[in-house]
Write a structure and sequence with these properties.
Layout (H helix, E strand, L loop, with lengths): L4 E5 L6 H12 L2 E4 H14 L7 H10 L2 E6 L2 E6 L2 E2 L7 H11 L2 H15 L4 E5 L2 H5 L5 E6 L2 H15 L5 H17 L12 E4 L5 H15 L1
Parallel strand pairs: 1-6, 1-7, 2-6, 7-8
Antiparallel strand pairs: 3-4, 4-5
Helix pairs in contact: 1-9, 2-4, 3-5, 4-8, 7-8
The structure holds cytidine-5'-monophosphate.
Length: 222
């Protein structure tokens, strides 16, 4: 089968987007980073001073918000109402606040609907927290990527450093562990491995090894 739906879920900084992007490229599929959508909404809410736990106000914000992905040389650019927020949505301020916004029902409903529309025709690799469980429960391929908190913090540290963002490793470890906790314990669509997902532990694997593993799973199952 061509046009598969490939769902890649897992905790913060497990390498989902790096790997998902490469898998999408190899399959000539569309790549959709759902975390970027939650980050974009968080960015807009902070910008417009919408209280991050006010479901009704966020719903109102979302009715007119235009989140657009555009392919770029180094991956993908994200625009909110025409403004390039690609770099802004990766800042610590957003990482700190995104889980609160992502726990609000109106935000989840609106973004889930958008994601399901994008995946309707298949041929897509989508990464997030609830893709295999809620967004695309019938996805042909479901991967759950994990890695130790230490390793994930180290990866984010190197990424941030390369981008010129100043961070402290132990702060990152705390932030990642806290975000995992918030994402796994929320009421609606918490971060949890789908029953039919295949777990891949990336702690001691290179990006290429993880990509190869996932490609193997895709080929075996289809
Ligand atoms: O993947 P990333 O770390 O960019 O995701 C940012 C945040 O967005 C997560 O910590 C989570 O709170 C939220 N998220 C979500 N459901 C998704 C993707 C992301 O709740 N499918």
């Amino acid at each position: 089968k061509s046009n598969l739906q490939v769902a890649i879920d897992g905790p913060a900084s497990a390498g989902k987007s790096t790997v998902a992007k490469k898998v999408a490229h190899l399959l000539d599929y569309v790549y959709c980073d759902t975390g970027a959508m939650y980050r974009a909404v968080t960015w807009a809410a902070l910008q417009q001073k919408v209280p991050l736990d006010n479901d009704a106000a966020l719903k109102e914000l979302l009715t007119n918000l235009k989140i657009v992905f555009k392919p770029a040389d180094d991956g993908q650019k994200v625009f909110v109402d025409g403004e390039d927020v690609t770099a802004a949505i990766r800042m610590p301020e957003i990482s700190k606040n995104v889980s609160l916004v992502a726990a609000q029902i109106s935000v989840r409903e609106a973004l889930t609907k958008k994601q399901q529309e994008l995946a309707l025709d298949g041929g897509i690799v989508m990464d997030g927290r609830d893709i295999g469980t809620t967004v695309l429960p019938d996805a042909e391929v479901k991967i759950f990527l994990v890695a130790s908190v230490k390793e994930r913090a180290l990866r984010r540290f190197r990424e941030d450093q390369a981008k010129g963002i100043k961070v402290d490793l132990s702060e990152l470890e705390k932030e990642i562990a806290l975000r995992d906790k918030k994402d796994s314990t929320r009421l609606i669509s918490p971060l949890v491995q789908a029953k039919d997902a295949i777990k891949v532990d990336t702690t001691s694997l290179t990006i290429e090894q993880v990509v190869a593993k996932i490609m193997e799973i895709i080929k075996k199952n289809n």
